[in-house]
Amino acid sequence: MHRYLAVRPKPGGDGIRLFCFHHAGGGALTFAGWQRRVGPGVSVLPVRLPGRETRRGEERLTDGARLVEELQRDLGTLLDEPHAFYGHSLGALVAYRLAQHRARAGQRPPELLTVAACAAPQLPAPLVKNLLRPELPDEELILALGGQDSIPAPLRSRAGWLGATLATLRADLRLAQSLRSVPVTPLPCPLDAFAGDDDPLVSATEVHAWKHCTTTRFRFRTVQGAHFFVRGRDVPRAVGEALRSEATGPEAARPGAAPHQAGRPT
Q1: What is the reported pLDDT for 151?
Q2: So what's the pLDDT on residue 256?
Q3: Which residues of the chain have pLDDT under 50?
């Protein structure tokens, strides 16, 4: 039983396993619909951190090193087979640090790391520091994180659920701060990075700086949308195409190979 997985992996697999890591304040439901949109040959496995959804009674984690260790213990056997990571916002930091941890231990890296809506981990994060001010009212926190789009409509109308979501969000911001406090080392795997063309929180330049986090092939592209473009169709389709491309041609993973372009590359 894997506590961190929202979907039970099929015995024997169903194509390459894509582990998906959600944004701050979010949960595994962020990736509802991804299995259909990603397409064939990929098995989508959303990862659910404690303190939300079916794990809302568990302790919220704010220590990045502890989270990485727990993920390694929980998912380790599944990561011995071909796999890939997708991380959105906070999830990008989680996915990167887990891959970094495994690479340092000489373990199998992901076939592809895809990050989205997240400034590269070596950059300063003044927004996170500002949002962690204890005196910051809930209303300002919501506005700073993209307004009403940052909180699903069903939660905004339920005071109890909204309060719990905001408490989880604040804990996740502390987790993000912890994940950014560790030195960055490049990964021995291809890395794709996505930025929203209307994202008020993270600039395209900050996302493009992920190019320093891999020793192999890097691709960057912009897609339509603000910070939560993970809920759209373009990114899962592009991730599925990229994984199928990686699986069918060694030239796709070769540094300097011409990338398949989705969205609007810049």
Answers
A1: 57
A2: 35
A3: 148, 250-266
Within 8 A by CB and 6+ apart from 183, the residues are none
The CB-based long-range contact list for 242-250 (8 Å cut-off, 24+ gap) reads 242/112, 242/114, 242/192, 243/16, 243/18, 243/38, 243/41, 243/42, 243/84, 243/111, 243/112, 244/39, 244/40, 244/41, 244/42, 246/111, 246/112, 246/190, 247/16, 247/41, 247/111
Distance CA 131, CA 144 (A): 8
Q: What is the predicted pLDDT for the residue at 120? A: 98
Give the pLDDT score at 261. 35
pTM value? 0.88
> What was the pLDDT predicted at 181?
95
How many residues are listed for the chain in this entry?
Answer: 266
**Contacts with 230 (C-beta within 8 Å, 6 or more apart), sequence order:** 23, 30, 31, 88, 116, 117
In a domain, 63, yes or no: yes
pLDDT at 162: 72
Residue 102, domain CATH: 3.40.50.1820
By residue range, what is the domain housing residue 163?
16-253
Rounded Cα distance between 121 and 135, Å, is 26
